[in-house]
Amino acid sequence: MFQCVFSSSVLQPHSTSCLFKHLFYHSATPASQKQPEPIYSKKTEIQRQTVRAPFAKLFIFSALQVARQLLLQQQQQQQVSGLKSPKRNDKQPALQVPVSVAMMTPQVITPQQMQQILQQQVLSPQQLQVLLQQQQALMLQQQQLQEFYKKQQEQLQLQLLQQQHAGKQPKEQQQVATQQLAFQQQLLQMQQLQQQHLLSLQRQGLLTIQPGQPALPLQPLAQGMIPTELQQLWKEVTSAHTAEETTSNNHSSLDLTTTCVSSSAPSKTSLIMNPHASTNGQLSVHTPKRESLSHEEHPHSHPLYGHGVCKWPGCEAVCEDFQSFLKHLNSEHALDDRSTAQCRVQMQVVQQLELQLAKDKERLQAMMTHLHVKSTEPKAAPQPLNLVSSVTLSKSASEASPQSLPHTPTTPTAPLTPVTQGPSVITTTSMHTVGPIRRRYSDKYNVPISSADIAQNQEFYKNAEVRPPFTYASLIRQAILESPEKQLTLNEIYNWFTRMFAYFRRNAATWKNAVRHNLSLHKCFVRVENVKGAVWTVDEVEFQKRRPQKISGNPSLIKNMQSSHAYCTPLNAALQASMAENSIPLYTTASMGNPTLGNLASAIREELNGAMEHTNSNESDSSPGRSPMQAVHPVHVKEEPLDPEEAEGPLSLVTTANHSPDFDHDRDYEDEPVNEDME
DNA sequence: GGTACACTAAACAGCA
DNA sequence: CTGCTGTTTAGTGTAC
User: Fold this and answer.
1) Which of A108, A310, A489, A621 has the smallest C-beta neighbourhood within 10 Å, fewest atoms?
2) What's the whole-model pTM score?
């Protein structure tokens, strides 16, 4: 989950596809409108309603939280590094980095990715520069504040211990506790100030936050702060802490150049046990040696040390124990030009991550707004106020602007970061989910599954335990058609299900029964006695008979459908754009390596042509509210309630998203693993 | 409200 | 007897 989510922004290409598949299926595409649920007959409607809408939102939230965690980790790394640099200049342009970014740890983005990130930013280069500088300065300030806050906590704890053992100094303890409380309150204020700061940035045009959108739920200390406010706060805290302390220069108090860069910092106890030790006018107490602090707190915990390896960017030196690591840190990563440069690089990485986080926050907000609009749209409008007229629909679906969506006037969904293609991608596709999308569309409108459906989301469904939005009949047909001889035994169909869909790796009794039921029920499935037993084939004629009722639409839609671009273009463009935005290899359906995907285009055309034939004969049945994509591919529209287990939140989805194709045999997977490879 | 459809669950039979 | 395969029925939910 973690990597999948976060790398969507910066780091890991492979996971990016994962994320965008998630996005597609929980926010954007018509397919997302269906949330699976295996057993819904015994669930109350209330359960379903509460389960569906928050699903995607929770996932997005989770993704953001994870990204935030990683960002904080990066900040920690930078923090440790930054304290070692006496030359660091907060206002220094971030691009003057002599050290190759490729030296960084595997976690770190490559120069190419960095460039991509830069290119995809919403801001102009000038704006970006300004914003970078501001963020850089603010970030350092808040880091210092964090450190001080931590010290305060430590001090309080130590004094509490002292009090317990010695039973004295109650007054001082109370004083510190009071300061602690006040400090926490001030932190809350700072959070508000952060939002103000963002708003000011927005007013300056440096941030593109949509109007009317609620303030972003900023995390304390996770965003930049107004320097003056922070300094004021700093002054208040420090002055309250030591009354006799001569308030130092605000700039110097925040200037890392005044900090002690020696690794042999004064012991923490000396600073903490005696508050007066920090009354030297220099705020060395506020610039602790993190390694020493964390070392004492957690003997083997260090942001730059983990799994016996030095995590200094580009180092990865093996250190047997923590002591050796400290030696290594002090020797190999001492204060020099190289370390300084690396530190700057790390700073830049953090900045980029922050920017990316801000951007993703924006995206999240837009998505949430979008989903909120959709979910709160009155159900009483089965024919939604589709402002996309038939004239508009006669054009390419991809040309339709998101503004065409029926938005509630109070919560307009402004264009989503129009500079980047990623969000607009989602918008482009999600725009086709207008109307009562949360409602499950009739399966009458389900076009049987096409190769494109599975192809484009194959990896997703293979790994994510999400029920595919396709009917059993469609899946069975797909399985059979994918086989070389266009025929499968029942067991082979089972295997196809379990191989292609993680969802079908559990509750085997249920879905297998359903498969058998469908095989028997539908005339399109023909049982043929074969040499090796009975096999099932698909009677396409019978199968096509089901189609006429599946597509209805007005002539404009039909006309639009005559070009396969109506369906292919937006989706493929969406995928490609999202991939390009995240600088990952194009994940086209044709490059997925599945032999069945080679016929994707023809399959799509086949589906479309087949649909067209029937649709043309049924033009009287118009559905003006249906968008082209829905009309062409209404199978995505079908929405189903969530499985209670899946409804637990995004975690269930996201965690399973990283499952290896190897099945989880320990989870209700009643059958043997796939014991034969049909292909 | 009726109808069609999909899904789930279950019963049942035949067979190896 | 057990398990698999295949058929059928019933109940439920959803969309039209």
Assistant:
1) A621
2) 0.32
